[in-house]
Specification:
about 220 residues; alpha/beta; TIM Barrel; 8-stranded parallel β-barrel; 9 helices; 8 strands; globular; EC 4.1.2.4; Aldolase_TIM
Length: about 220
């Protein structure tokens, strides 16, 4: 992407997100309509909202093991498989943070691999909750995600009290995975300035609910 991306260029890497647990079908339909109006890449919703009525030009992402990540790997795999069967194009799974915090990266890799096997044709993004982890843990989890066949590593759920995306975490994740995987910045990105900082740091996808406000701050 150029150093000064346009509104349409940024929209094309946005997952327009609605993950509030109280979201109604009407609210989800409104988010889909807004995503189409704004030209975002996808919508990201809870799997219980599927199937969605949406144009074929708009991708559908759903979360898996959300938001805690403390689900059994088999449960995450089943959730991902069901979501794909119900129309999801992309799966954003949350890792088990306990594994990462205690250095059990083989367990991290195994649970990602289980979801990968359950949804082999979906784009798989791995939410690492970077604000909770040390730099070393971020690096090791990103390596585990790559070994397990993930397509993206993603900073945050946006629900953890430790915080969301940071420029430092995105830079570190990008250095770790190089050009081999995508990096999705998500959590706390609410204006154009922050979105551009994440892109400059190496983010190739943005997960945001404030898409309209972000895009309004960018040139045509």
């Amino acid at each position: 992407m150029s150093e000064n991306p346009t509104r349409s260029q940024v929209a094309a890497i946005i997952d327009h997100t609605l993950l509030k647990p109280e979201a109604t079908p009407e609210a989800v339909a409104a988010v889909v309509a807004e995503a189409v109006e704004l030209g975002t890449y996808s919508v990201c919703v809870s799997p219980s909202q599927l199937p969605l009525e949406h144009p074929s030009t708009l991708k559908v992402a759903v979360v898996c093991g959300f938001p805690s990540g403390a689900h059994d790997a088999a449960v995450k795999a089943t959730e991902a498989e069901t979501a794909v069967r119900n129309g999801a194009d992309e799966i954003d799974m949350v890792i088990n943070l306990s594994f990462a915090l205690t250095g059990r990266y083989d367990r991290t890799e195994a649970e990602i691999a289980a979801v990968r096997a359950a949804a082999p044709d979906a784009v798989l993004k791995v939410i690492i909750e970077s604000a909770v982890l040390s730099d070393e843990q971020i690096v090791e989890v990103c390596r585990a995600a790559e070994r397990a066949g993930a397509d993206f590593v993603k900073t945050s759920t946006g629900f953890h009290p430790a915080g969301g995306a940071s420029v430092h975490a995105v830079e570190l994740m990008r250095r770790t995975v190089g050009d081999r995987l995508g990096v999705k910045a998500s959590g706390g990105i609410r204006d154009a300035e922050t979105a551009l900082a994440m892109i400059a740091a190496g983010a190739s996808r943005l997960g945001v609910s404030a898409s309209k406000a972000i895009l309004a701050g960018l040139p045509e």
